[in-house]
Amino acid sequence: MHISNLLSVASLAALAAAAPSELERRQQNCVITDFNKIAGLSKYCDVIALRNIHVPAGQSLDLTNLKEGAHIIFEGRTTFGYAEWDGPLIKVSGKHITVRQSSGSVLDGEGERWWDYHGGNGGKTKPHFFSAHNLDDSRIEGLKVKNTPVHGFSLDSKNLVVSGVTIDNSDGDNKGAYNTDAFDVAHSYNLTIENAWVHNQDDCLAINQGDNIRFINGYCYGSHGLSIGSVGNGDVVSNVEITDSQIVNSQNGVRIKTKSGQAGEVRNITFRNISLTNITDYGLIVQQDYNNPGHATNGIKIHDITFDNIHGTALQKGYNIALYCGDGSCYNWSWKNVKIHGARDYKCQNYPSVASCSAA
After folding, report:
1. Residues 184/213, Cβ–Cβ less than 8 Å
2. Residue partners of 79: CB distance under 8 A and separation at least 6
3. What are residue 58's phi and psi, to 5 degrees?
4. For the segment 248-292, what is each residue's pLDDT rounded down to a tens digit?
5. What 8-state DSSP symbol labels residue 345?
6. Dihedral of CA 257/192/212/186: which sign?
7. Which residue positions does the secretion signal occupy (predicted)?
């Protein structure tokens, strides 16, 4: 979208002092270059161009008080001051919002300042990057993110489309990045993530709770794979389609992980047309002992699951397929064209007879 007649900073200051009724009578296209102007102006603007914004240490770029239907455009390089805190560095909410960026722009987390090989499990306190909570009937498109300190996108919204997002944490491979999940999903309904490109050091996708979720045409490099879970504490994940995606040089391929001794449900999940290359640990894994290895329990049902055309390679030190279910809790599965080779067979238990735990 081309922004015409962008207001000068002086004009924006005048608008901030104007009565809201005057502002609401006409569309306002705003360009903001000063972080301190955002809070006072964002609620009045229909189009907000955030140009080369530097966010002070320990603060969020707060876009939670937007006009309905607002368009947010990141321009240039967005940066963040260093502080040890939980974040998020960016938070957006609202209805009918579009978030995108201009060509060549980047949201630069400069995560190497926090990376210490501990991720969220200790060491420095690291800020989560982007919170999209209550961002309903909206779109996030074409964002390019570099070097998140820890988790990337936290998605907790209804009728949200996330399209064409790039998350490049490749610098973290040898600099201590950990727990750099790309997309963490909870409490979401009718969510689509499409055409994502991810290089990170944890889950490419982790769905912990939600309904009617689609992940389409994703590319995941160096990750922990495409995951349902970990599910527990009574959470339900249902009606999920993960399709037409590539997982390369990653720890895991596709997986469902639930917690031992807890309640919940995983139902109506489809993994289809997933290509695996050089998976180090598990090409395909379903485990019901995620928090207590070796103790799979049946309090969480995993049923109406489709694995269709999951194919590729795992490394010799890993396992092609691992199915480790509680007694009677994994049932009503469909298993077609699952062909993973190169690694070892796993000693599986309590899995549906239609599935296979041997290399294909």
Report:
1. no
2. 53, 54, 55, 108, 110
3. 75, 10
4. 999 999 999 999 999 999 999 999 999 999 999 999 999 999 999
5. P
6. positive
7. 1-18
Tell the residue number behind the tokens 């002992």, with chain if given: 289
Tokens 């809070």 locate to 39
- Judge contact between 296 and 350, C-beta under 8 A: yes
Alpha-carbon Rg of the chain, whole angstroms? 22
Could you tell me which residues come within 8 angstroms of residue 160 by beta carbon, excluding any fewer than 6 positions away? 132, 135, 136, 137, 138, 139, 140, 188, 190, 191, 192
Active site residues: 224
Does residue 114 sit in helix, strand or coil?
coil
Structural domains for the chain: 26-341 (2.160.20.10)
Cα-to-chain-centroid distance, residue 8? 36
Q: How confident is the model at residue 358 (pLDDT cuts 50, 70, 90)?
A: confident
User: Which segments of the chain does DSSP mark as H helices, in order?
Assistant: 9-17, 20-23, 38-41
| Contacts of 10 by beta carbon, 8 Å cutoff, 6+ apart | none
Q: Please write the tens of the pLDDT for every residue from 141-150.
A: 999 999 999 9
Least confident of 12-21, 241-250, 305-314, 337-346: 12-21
